[in-house]
Amino acid sequence: MSRHASRRRLTLVSLAGVGALSAAGLSLLPSLASAAPCPDVEVVFARGTGEAPGLGITGTPLVKDIKSALPGKNVSSYAVDYAANFSQTSAGPGATDMTDRVVSTAANCAGTSFVLGGYSQGGSVTDIALGIPTRLGTGRTIPAKLAGRVKAVVVFGNPLRLSGRTIASAGDVFGPKAKEFCNTGDPVCGNGRNGAAHLTYHVNGSVEQGARFAVERIGRG
């Protein structure tokens, strides 16, 4: 092979190598672009019975209000993935999903703090995740080593009250961090007979109060 042909071959090999490296680099771009930065705060919320998947009628405004009150922080949200079925048998699996989300996010984001909460059956999801026994099943609970990173707990219409208990009375770890709302007459949490009372937390100021409580707790560090 001539010296000229040899140089030409080396040039082609080099260019092919560069092309391969460039292609590999480009293949990484989508994953890099999709990797969101770690939030300062993540709100993990469980919707109520029968609501469509998502944060629900109370979780959606709660997240919005927390974000608005913390303009200097990156606030994300996660809607607990569970059935929210009318048979009330999905709270345990919901608690497991809530716990798994906190554990995985905490492992990947050392500086992220959490606000946990739920509405109606979502309140039971939260109870179980916090390690509070209920009649609606069992699931994985928040590890003790992560308890300090849960800055606030906000629940609406929590069935736990029907047993004469609250998150505040159930333990010293999460009790001081909890804000609980139960409207007068709400049959789900207060043994009342006014079904409409269970549907007004997002319009009667409860959500705003819950958000202010969470923001205050976050501010304490």
UniProtKB/TrEMBL annotation:
SMART domains: Cutinase
Record Gene3D superfamilies: alpha/beta hydrolase
Family: Belongs to the cutinase family.
GO molecular function: carboxylic ester hydrolase activity
Signal peptide segment: 1-35
SUPFAM superfamilies (alphabetical): alpha/beta-Hydrolases (SSF53474)
InterPro entries, sorted: AB_hydrolase_fold (IPR029058), Cutinase/axe (IPR000675), TAT_signal (IPR006311)
Protein name: Cutinase family protein
Pfam family, one: Cutinase
Keywords per UniProt: Disulfide bond, Hydrolase, Serine esterase, Signal
UniProt key word Ribonucleoprotein: no
Superkingdom of source: Bacteria
